[in-house]
Design a protein that fits this description.
By secondary structure, the protein is an alpha/beta fold. It is about 35% helix and about 25% strand. Strands 1, 2, 3, 4, 5, 14, 15 and 16 form an 8-stranded mixed sheet that branches. Bound molecules: zinc ion. The site of zinc ion has 5 residues, from loops.
Length: about 425
């Protein structure tokens, strides 16, 4: 008998990618599908997966029991690129944008990333945690059980640290796991707009060593883009970060083909992200280095761009492709990762199976955690979603709505969809009285 403290039975279909990660080429779309399954876990990790009718004889349960009611279970989503800790609200700017106002008009009205920087600098750590908490709750309700979270709206030492401390506290208190990334190189702050070298000195001589010393971030990220951090500035900053032991991530080739993907590959980065304008050379370089391509189709969609990252080409050339929401207040204000999966299928021509793997196991790979999560296998975290469909194609086919019935984090149910009072009455049960 296997000892367990949590058991989920009557799983109609268990759908999961299977390691080892990363999943490349044809393997990306090769999901394992098991029918009439149960999953047992202990201390948050899966200890047994087997036929539902064998659970009672093979598993000794001391703890909670849940039935999936014949519906589908998949691994919790991993979101490897988010910006969830910030103050303020940019709905005014969004409103201007959808009315066709230009970037300059929006900037003149105080919009853009510096709007968020000003609000975040002025906010207390408690304020950042309170708004962050609500956003994390929304993520869990969308089936996300692990995220990477970036700073980058402080752009001075104290404000960046304030953001990273909020991330650390939220990780301790909230069921979602949060992997922190220092993104002080998100933009040049107004006070250093004319003196890039001085900001690079602040980043490398003051911020990086303090963040390292206080163990506030695992990854270091930079916005390598025309008009933001150039290739040589990025190389300078990231080599200092690498020397201090940070793992590297790049915002690369989002708006122009500047060569950020090749730089990420050259520097041995764990991932390069966005990649809408990546060149063929960038793809070849990343394929050689094994750098994960974290694609963010929600950003293309929300910015009303007609261009998406060339996912098919990347998969064919053997890049580890992952998906993320890019949740942030400006260019992708959504936690709906199932919608990201839908956009990946519709606008980047990924298959449903590929998109599921890219938002789970390969997403975990892109933050260095594929040994631990991203698929439902014995030994991994019991992070699971119970959906309300029997056919997993509904995740994409019945688009833009939530299919999530329950979310399980480390073996514990952390989200149950609000009760629908008339769900079980059926059309023949007569009038619905509420
Ligand atoms: Zn981003």
């Amino acid at each position: 008998m296997i000892k367990a403290d949590s058991l989920i039975t009557d799983i109609g279909k268990l759908i999961t990618p299977v390691g080892p990660a990363p999943l490349l080429k044809d393997n990306l779309g090769a999901l394992r599908i098991m029918e009439d399954i149960a999953v047992a876990s202990k201390d948050g990790r899966i200890v047994w997966i087997g036929p539902s009718d064998k659970a009672r004889v093979e598993v000794e349960l001391e703890g909670s029991f849940h039935s999936a009611g014949g519906y589908t279970v998949m691994p919790g989503f991993v979101d490897p690129h988010t910006h969830p800790i910030f103050a303020g609200n940019r709905s005014d700017e969004f409103n201007m944008r959808i009315q066709g106002k230009s970037y300059q008009e929006i900037a003149a009205a105080g919009g853009g990333i510096l709007n968020t920087v000003n609000a975040t600098r002025a906010a207390s750590g408690d304020d950042l945690m309170a708004s962050g908490w609500d956003r994390l709750n929304r993520m869990v309700s969308e089936g996300i059980t692990t995220i990477e979270a970036k700073s980058g709206y402080g752009l001075d030492t104290e404000s960046e640290i304030k953001q990273l401390e909020a991330i650390r506290e939220l990780d301790k208190r909230h069921p979602i796991d949060i992997i922190p990334t220092f993104l002080g190189a998100h933009e040049y702050p107004p006070e250093y707009k004319q003196d890039h070298n001085a900001y690079l000195r602040l980043l490398t001589e003051e911020m990086l060593p303090r963040i390292k010393e206080e163990k506030l971030a695992v990854f270091c990220d930079i916005f390598t883009e025309d008009g933001v951090f150039s290739i040589s500035e990025s190389r300078f900053f990231m080599s200092k970060a690498k020397k201090l032991g940070f793992k590297l991530k790049f915002h690369a080739d989002e708006l122009t083909d500047l060569g950020g993907a090749s730089l990420a590959a050259e520097m041995g980065a764990i991932s390069a992200e966005h990649l809408i304008f990546i060149s063929d050379k960038g793809i070849e370089d990343m394929a050689r280095s094994g750098t994960a391509a974290v694609l963010l189709p929600g950003t293309s969609f929300f910015l009303m761009m007609n261009k998406y990252a060339p996912a098919r080409k990347m998969i064919e050339r053997g890049l580890p492709v992952a998906l993320a929401t890019d949740f942030n207040p400006g260019s992708s204000h959504t936690q709906a990762i199932s919608m990201i999966v839908t956009l990946a299928c519709l606008n980047m021509k990924m298959t449903i199976e590929e998109a599921i793997s890219a938002a789970t196991l390969n997403a975990a790979y892109a933050i260095g955690l594929a040994n631990d999560r991203g698929s439902l296998e014995v030994g991994k975290l019991a992070d699971m979603i119970i959906f309300d469909f029997k056919d997993y194609h509904d995740l994409v086919y019945n688009w833009g709505v939530s299919h999530i019935e329950k979310v399980v984090k480390r073996g514990k149910v952390v989200f149950i969809r609000s009760h629908i009072f008339f769900k079980d009455s059926g059309p023949s049960a007569g009038a619905i009285v509420l």
